[in-house]
Amino acid sequence: MTIKLEYFSALINVETVELVGVYDITKEKTASVDILINGKYGTTLNGFTYLNTWEDNEVLAWANEELKKYQTS
Fold it and tell me: What is the C-alpha separation between 34 and 44, in angstroms, rounded?
């Protein structure tokens, strides 16, 4: 998938996505997620929500889905 993030001038062909950090707001059961794309493009995604708790694999799956919002045609 090729994406165009708001604060980047280049198009990015996403090959890998790594979690760098999850900043949990437990009272609201939401989190912002820092990711690293292709080992060199860092960004923060906001809006991850959960019911009771979360696992890394759930956050990573959410981040991959969230990146589709930035996909170019």
Answer: 4
Give the residue from 68, 12, 1, 69 showing the smallest Cα distance to 42: 12
Number of H helices, E strands in the chain: 1, 5
pLDDT tens digit sequence for 44-57: 999 999 999 999 99
Per the confidence metrics, is the pTM higher than 0.85? Answer: yes
Rounded CA separation 45/52 (Å): 20
Q: What span, in angstroms and rounded, lies between the C-alpha atoms of 23 and 27?
A: 12
Domain range annotation of the chain: 2-70
In eight-state DSSP terms, residue 47 is E
Return d(Cα 21, Cα 47) in angstroms, integer: 14
Beta bridge partners of 48: 31
